[in-house]
Amino acid sequence: MVTKSRLDWVLQQLLLGRQCRCRxxxxxxxxxxxxxxxxxxxxxxxNSIPMFLIQGLGKCLEQYVTVDHGHRNSAxxxxxxxVFKLPTTSDSVEGAGVAAVPECPAQSQEQxxxxxxxxxxxxxxxxxLADEHPCEERSVTASDPKRLRLDExxxxxxxxxxxxxxxxxxxxxxxxxHWRLHAHARRCYAAxxxxxxxxxxxxxxxxxxxxxxxxxxxxxxxxxxxxxxxEQRGFKKTAFFDYCCKRFHxxxxxxxxxxxxxxxxxxxMQKVIGER
Length: 276
Hints:
single chain; two-stranded antiparallel sheet; alpha+beta
């Protein structure tokens, strides 16, 4: 179900800490819900009430004829709108219970959306926030009018759900913290502010490098690598490598004597600042 998939995607964005604006309008015979997801992401974003709203909408899908739309404007804001109508006998479809809607020509992303949601929009998601959502069609679901009733199963979250929400919030906070640090390090490196970029990345990986040095030793045991073997690994002796050697290995800058474990961490640090 396309509408259910879109609601799940909105819930995922709220869990990631994305800022949102919600609007619910009641009309004769229908209800419209309009959700705007901005480009602002914060680890302490208070999205608990919007999440309860999205979960409640997902549980009411079978009781209404639903139409959903989505698009992203030039300000990187994702607009998602849902229309819930009371089903009629003509809306019921024998068998699958899904009615097709004639396709409308796609509108320009620069056009705004009205509260009545009369137009169909292409749905897009910023690449920096999440993978592209696969649902780009408008859909209608219908059910037997006799089944129309209030959903009494919607209850506040229990202790287990609250526990998982807390874990998800903590994971999002850590992820967002690392994402902001890596993005700032790449900006500093691109601006040739190398000292700040190197310091930020090595501070994050310092505990891992010290643990590797404590377990495996700072230097390679046995035969050292040759320059040909280093070139096969894609190694290039850069200012960042010299910085790491001065900080962790007392200035020993011969790359042939470094351990394989150190090179694995070093490659990860290079990817953070954009050297690879």
